[in-house]
Amino acid sequence: MLTESSESTLERLLLREEIEQFLYYEAELLDDRKFDDWINLIAEDIHYHMPIRRNVKFGTQERENTSSLSEISWFDEGKRTLAGRVRQINTGLHWCEEPFSRIRHIVSNVRILEVNGDEVRVNSSFFVWQNRLQDEVNLFVGRREDILRRDEDTQWKIAKRLILLDQNVLLAKVISTFF
Amino acid sequence: MTALVRSYGDRSLRSLVDLDRGLVSREIYVNEDIYKMELEQVYTRAWLFIGHESQVPNPGDFVVSRMGEEEVILVRDRKNELHVFLNTCRHRGMKVCRYDDGNTLVFTCPFHGWSYDTDGRLVGVPYYDAAYKGDMDKSEWGLPEVAQMCNYYGSVWATWDKGAPSFEDYLGPYADMARRVFQSTDGEDNGVELFNPVYKWRIPCNWKFPGFSFDGDRAHGAMTHRSINVAAIGPQGDANGGNRSPLLAPFPYTDYEMTVPELGHGGHNAIYDQPGVAPYKDTWFTEPGIDDYYREQREKKREKYKDKYIVGETAHIWPNVNIQPHRILIWHPHSAGVTESWRAYPIDRMAPQFVKDAQRRYMMRYGGPCGLTESDDMENWNYASAASTGTVAKRFPYNFMMGAGHAFKDEEGAPGMTLNYEVAEENQRSRLRRWLEFMEAGSWEDIYPVNPVSPSAGQAVKAERGTV
Ligand code: FES
Ligand SMILES: [Fe+2]
After folding, report:
1. Which residues from chain B sit within 8 angstroms of residue A71, using beta carbons?
2. Which CATH code fits A4-165?
3. Which pLDDT tens digit goes with each residue over B318-377?
4. What class has domain B48-149?
5. CB of B111 closer than 6 angstroms to any ligand 1 atom
6. Which residues contact B134 (CB under 8 A, 6 or more apart)?
7. Global ipTM
8. pLDDT digits over B164-188, tens only?
């Protein structure tokens, strides 16, 4: 604290506030099913990656999360496929989201890890509730590591997203939402 | 057995499955007692898919797999032999392996410390001399091992039943097709490896919904998958209306539902009008270089198979596995109303990395619980299962009439197979037919060798190809 001027402390707090507000706004777009607005927050070069989490022996934790270089993940894609998902939901014929589920993204534990030019690396935790038809409930809990990039149009764009879902065997029949 | 009879009235299993009329009671998809009986009658007897040797390339490598509801370990021992063991300690039943995969010298039980060599032998028991005082013979207390295991061109299969026929006999006329699935795209045996790891996820439906309909339910595609083309996930991108599947240029062919009703296997398979393999058609418009690889591979395969008539590319191996050149689908029973679905993706072992990457990414966006195509299958299987459990609902049998009584044989085009129009429910009836035999059988002797099934009366023995 002593080495930091009050000016830079204020800057840091403002940035955190701005990032938090952006992440909450993003969550709200998804919960309100404004998928076209959401996809607009996605950078053209995004890597959207949700690895599978393995049960591995102590000392080999570097193998816990599957690699996007050679292994299978739940999601490992770019904007092209994400945009395809949005178009598919928007047909109204995508039966696993027709009628829509009630989905709520709770985002917390927001922490800025690094500021690098116009990019910010940020951690956040999520708790996603899905209630489908009458009584189907799926819970998704985990952590994200994002790279957000400043953008004139939307303030920020999501340039990279690593999603660590805290499950091994996926307990939901499908993942029909975004994280 | 008494409880069983009571839970679905005084009806026999046979009366619940009327395949001549195509009427099948919902009971067999939802009844808890019938489900428990399946675990015994089907899952301890049938040959089941375990994995692939590429998952355990080195001595000491292991990966967990599953047979029915129970977890097994596929392991390569120090002498390079493959084994499949039940994952349970002989002392008090603890899981001896709680990792998904890895490499080990021994499996040491975390409860009291019994340890087992990778060949299954019990090699370590704490207090052995002091407390057992020589009363226990360790050689009798190894890990429970499957009765038979088969490494079929790199794929590993097993059964708990000594009396089961060999895996090749179990496959029957599908042996050749199954062999080709594990070839690389240039037609070389043992030519693939699996991407790691396999997808594992739970679908709230009876295992027979996916297990008995997949590759036998062409009628579902147009409706279930109506929303998929707009996403253009296929290798050709937006071309061809965004179709999710690669473009193909096969020789002139006729597509059938093809099955061996005696064994329960079957798939959507083509009979080609000429021998050999058709030339490759470019389809990877979204990624450069991929077509060049596959085209070159295809030319090598064409050379190898130029005089041979090929039938079909995929096979459903009864009861719960579907094998295809780029994907293996397994539906494990988890409870009467839940399936644990597994999905493995084979790829040419020798393919360059960029081809492996492109194929891997295509498979991830295509299928599994996050794939764009199959999410809608899951919704349908889930709620079809859910809406079948009601007391009143169960009074109304499922309709399996599509194409019933219209099957035929074509011994020249597809020896040993029974055929039907490409949109039929012949394969589903075939699987149910074999299911009934397994459920009623006292042992393998009652169900193998099989009794030939002839297509229902009233149908010509052979319809003209291309006209059905
Ligand atoms: S249960 Fe394994 S050592 Fe006791
Ligand atoms: Fe489907």
Report:
1. 195-197
2. 3.10.450.50
3. 999 999 999 999 999 999 999 999 999 999 999 999 999 999 999 999 999 999 999 999
4. mainly beta
5. yes
6. none
7. 0.96
8. 999 999 999 999 999 999 999 999 9
